[in-house]
What does this fold into?
Amino acid sequence: MLTIACLRRVTSVLRALLAAAVIVALAGAACTAAARGERGSPRPTPHAKPRRSPHPRATRAPTAAVASPSPRATAAAAGGERLEGFGSSTRGGEDGREVWVTAATTEALRAALLDVNKTGYAILRFDVHEPIMVHRPLPYVTAPYVTIDGHGATIDGSELRNEVALIDVRAHDVIVRDLRLRNGYDNLRAQSEDAHDVVFSHISSTGSMDDGLSVAGGAHDVTAQYLFLAGNTRSVFCKDGGTNLSLHHTWIQKGWIRSPLVSGPTAHADLRNVVVEDWGEWGSRFENGATGNVVDSLFVLSEYANAHGGKPDALRAISGAAVYTSGNAFRGAAHPPEFTSAPRPFPAPPVATDPVERMADRVRARAGCLPRDAVDLRYVGRTTDWRVGVETPLRLDAD
It folds into this structure.
């Protein structure tokens, strides 16, 4: 039989084992809580999207073009076309809150833009039935992850006396679509190093005193697709640090110069399925060390434009520029380029491209804000009686 002394020893050992088990259990629970952040450890905060560097081109030698589809290509609302080109990785304001413009006034539009800029992650929508006549400068778009969905709205700068743009994007991941921009100083800009992963789609930009579209100030990775540009002093401008511009399925007509201009040693542009029709001083030009591609595009200088001062230089590469060309057509009085094409395409994201014979009618039918309003139709229908070679060649309004 166990003695009382032995029983006491057994009891003491059992108590020690039970205490050790409790300590182990508590230690395990503490470790689990720490791993789950239950001890008050701060949660990691989301980081802002890092700024992507513009496409590096340390050497002047062109390399083969990329051929795989963009993983983030999405559908543009206006025509169902995919977003393609340098800006196609944009998120825009998908799944963001909605801000509405329901009055056709400068004040309503300014208030909506300021509201969007407070947070980003927003979709600016329009429900207006008259042109918005802008009489003082509008706020820049400074917040990222924004979509401006015009739903066919018109912003008119005829009453504006400032040298500003109607829509000026200075943030990343921005989409502007289905909008008419008319008679501004500049109609549309992507400007500043913060402006990247930007898409402009199905926009009609007409009658600007300066640029119909400007990509400058370090803006990069920008897509301009299915645009209709007409009557602008300078149609498309990519210089002053702007680079990586995809311009495709776009109709440019009745401009003075810059259809487009790509200028500077860092400027790089990829043009595909573009129709350039009737200009004053010259059509498209790459200069001052710029690089790019011009593929399956159409250049037309009409008899009227040529007879009234339109110069036949359709596509030029000067002052150290290097351009790859393929599949382009030159009609009417438009002269083919005199420079030698680069031997291979410069790097650019893929864009679905058709031969000129198939693409020209499609681009003319689908470019711009659709359906076209009376003013855009007047630009299209005007084949004579516009001021060829003058800085403001054609400036139409709703009268």
Remarks:
- Confidence is low (pLDDT under 50) at residues 1-8, 17-53, 56-77.
- The two ends are 118 Å apart (CA to CA).
- The helical segments are 4-35, 106-119, 303-307, 356-366, 374-381.
